[in-house]
Design a protein that fits this description.
Blueprint (H helix, E strand, L loop, with lengths): L2 E3 L24 E9 L18 E7 L6 E3 L5 H5 L10 H18 L7 E4 L7 H6 L4 E4 L3 H9 L4 E3 L4 H9 L4 E7 L8 H11 E12 L1 H6 L12 E2 L2 H10 L2 E9 L5 E8 L9 H12 L5 H5 L1 H21 L4 E4 L3 H10 L9 E2 L17 E2 L2 H6 L3 E4 L5 H7 L9 E4 L5 E3 L1
Parallel strand pairs: 1-7, 5-6, 5-8, 6-7, 8-9, 13-14, 13-16, 14-15, 16-17
Antiparallel strand pairs: 2-3, 3-4, 4-10, 9-12, 11-12, 17-18
Amino acid sequence: MSIAIDQPAAAGLGTITHASCRFCGAPLRHTFTDLGMSPPCESFLEAHQLNCMEAFYPLHVHVCERCFLVQLEEYISPEEIFTEYAYFSSYSDSWLAHAKAYTERMIERFHLGPDSLAVELASNDGYLLQYFVQRGIPVLGVEPAANVAREAVKKGIPTLVRFFGRELAQQMVRDGTQADLILGNNVFAHVPDVCSFTAGMKTLLKPQGVITLEFPHLMRLMEGNQFDTIYHEHFSYFSFITATQVLAKFGLTVFDVEELPSHGGSLRVYARHAEDDSKPVGDRVHELTRREELAGFTRMETYRAFDERVKETKRRILSFLIDARRQGKSVVGYGAPGKGNTLLNYCGIRTDLLDYTVDRNPYKHGRFLPGTHIPVFAPEKIRETRPDYVFILPWNLKKEIRGQLAYIREWGGKFVVPIPDVEVFE
């Protein structure tokens, strides 16, 4: 199996390409939250880079007054972020279980078989498509990061190393490819040109086909104070109402929606061609739309209230860490996720407050977190150093991590999660 490599055109960093809403074009005049300056969250450093200049970009999030799309301006090109990528989906057991359950459900619900084609956009290391392959269903991955795509190919998953959009979809159709199922798990928020991406899905989908998109739910982000899920890879943050509007503009109708616990609260939306009347719009679509309207997601004042809550959470996190240090306690991190790097840089947490962090991904071992320069080790480091507190950065996986590190009870170690508020537990 081979990988088709598409070499991206050179793109300058720091160019602001969206002074207006990336969806509707309205001026971006209102702040959702401002997390200051931060480096790209997956730009891990090697030891020889620690004394080199490091690029920081704004994490100033706006909300559009017309369509209510919450968004970052495009300070960094997708080519710079995703061509070499540090995130491998297969290192989370719970995420693999989520992917396998999704696969079984789609096969049963939409009667997929050996004559079907499932196309995943941002297919990463094949963490999900491998389960379709095991069931004998043809697949195709589209993944811009060549280093993670190689892992998918090793699993027998054909992969295009390309950025997906209108032009690639047209080329795929000319080459005879159309999908019965298009799926995108945590990619919709990562796309700066959301219009080209959505138009491409419309083009690639068979007349009776189905699209499923999973993305963090803005309502849950705000309810759970999940400001750390804001980083340069995430260009947009969707309410259900806004996501539905984006799809509708390009002839796609949302006919079902599920609310999921993953990533602190996500949506899985099901879409089909507007002209496909074989899949009626279900009650859950109407119910969630009403709930968001009642919660104020079509009123600007709802969005303006978020920023102060974020600032107060920063104060509480720093108070805990400073008090722990003053008491002579040791604190280490677990995980090196993108969200963790947002939190650490926004709060100004470095090795004076967090000795190190660990991660299951060997790619990150021996490297240093961007901006804060906190070293990353293998998880065994925790047993060696016996810290008083383990600060869980991927708080959405806290149950899984507590199980993996249950042995810290041997020396009275405790866990800490920072979101939605600082919580200490054994």
